[in-house]
């Protein structure tokens, strides 16, 4: 029987596998940030250990950085301590770090691929739940806990179970005004926020193959929002073109060998998946979440569900609770919901293509009165490129704020936060209660839908703007 892409990459990394035990696999790359690394470094220090292969770990500052100032204390003493600790740990243990002000600094899942640290057929871990982003390159990449971070630092290996496999196939051609974000939100609408639990997902089909690497990263990034720790896409020419020439990419003969190997990284025709989900791209509309998990999502012109729409009592209850938290009143449509804040950024949608999409909609228009709209590039390199393309000028002329790179309002671990009851059109990946600030109301959308909401002052169909 043939093998899936996931099985091929997993099998190539097994160090030890015996019946009745969780397999031990080799980890090619670890990425680190200030939030989940301190205890791991402390653990190493306490045990008198070093990193087994220091060059395999690369760190950046992202969650706690200010998007207004390069000062390390700009977001208060707690954030400052987190970042100073990371800096001291990286110096002590010989780990490469992109700190505040470094051109490569940025959100860990934006920085990795940009630097060529993310390569097809590799295993990549990070103490961060959105690590599946890197699966867009055909890597097995997943989030781990802090004690596992320490284990990888000490041994460059990890115990990891084999997941079941799920194929998510998106056929047809996506409307050019839609994006990968609409696709993954539409998938979440089908599977629910837990439908992928226990699976490694492979995304495939003509609509996926047509995506750029940025789009593929957006898609894989949100695998965890449907419950799956791993989301992958088979590498192809788009992948190879993206990687070539990046700082950590293989060079010369090693490049040719790598490309040859990468071309074998696809599921065999007779590979068996444990579950299959199929969608047609033509059926996907611009998507907006109305509730408090990413599965509570509808097309922009659909009717927001009421508890009566659900036969299942648990779902009906969760609908009622979500409507109450989100402040949605009877009879309201998405277009009736006024937004207070628009946030463009995060490891889901903080890449150059996302910023271009916002600028395209915003060009020559104005952000509606009373709306605070901020654009936060995912990294220093994204910021630089956007500025070279004049996108910052288009955005600031339209009334958007142009900020410094970081996680920002995706999680509000810095000082970018929603106020109580504020409604936000956000390009991030989680709409959980209080995620963007206590009492804040998050609606997940694509970058162009965020721009449309900023200009209209309420949710609007980007196809009609
Ligand atoms: C802070 C970090 C551990 C967390 C995660 O694991 O995802 C954060 O990045 C998030 O998006 O909630
Ligand atoms: S941008 Fe958001 S989702 Fe991504 S790593 Fe930062 S906090 Fe987590």
UniProtKB/TrEMBL annotation:
GO molecular function, one term: 3-isopropylmalate dehydratase activity
Entry superkingdom: Bacteria
Cofactor: [4Fe-4S] cluster
Xref: InterPro entries: 3-IsopropMal_deHydase_lsu (IPR004430), Acnase/IPM_dHydase_lsu_aba_1/3 (IPR015931), Acoase/IPM_deHydtase_lsu_aba (IPR001030), Aconitase_4Fe-4S_BS (IPR018136), Aconitase_4Fe-4S_dom (IPR036008), IPM_dehydratase_rel_enz (IPR050067), IPMI_cat (IPR033941)
Documented EC number(s): 4.2.1.33
Keywords: 4Fe-4S, Amino-acid biosynthesis, Branched-chain amino acid biosynthesis, Iron, Iron-sulfur, Leucine biosynthesis, Lyase, Metal-binding
Binding-site positions, [4Fe-4S] cluster: 347, 407, 410
Family matches, as CDD domains: IPMI
Record-linked Pfam families: Aconitase
Catalytic activity: (2R,3S)-3-isopropylmalate = (2S)-2-isopropylmalate
Gene3D superfamilies with a match to the protein in the record: Aconitase, domain 3
GO biological process, one term: L-leucine biosynthetic process
Sequence ranges assigned to domain Aconitase/3-isopropylmalate dehydratase large subunit alpha/beta/alpha in this UniProt record: 7-457
Manner of cofactor binding, per the entry note: Binds 1 [4Fe-4S] cluster per subunit.
Pathway this chain belongs to: Amino-acid biosynthesis; L-leucine biosynthesis; L-leucine from 3-methyl-2-oxobutanoate: step 2/4
Described purpose of this protein according to its UniProt entry: Catalyzes the isomerization between 2-isopropylmalate and 3-isopropylmalate, via the formation of 2-isopropylmaleate.
Assembly with partners or alone: Heterodimer of LeuC and LeuD.
Family according to the record: Belongs to the aconitase/IPM isomerase family. LeuC type 1 subfamily.
Name recorded for this polypeptide: 3-isopropylmalate dehydratase large subunit
Organism of origin: Neiella marina
Upper taxonomic lineage: Bacteria, Pseudomonadati, Pseudomonadota, Gammaproteobacteria, Alteromonadales
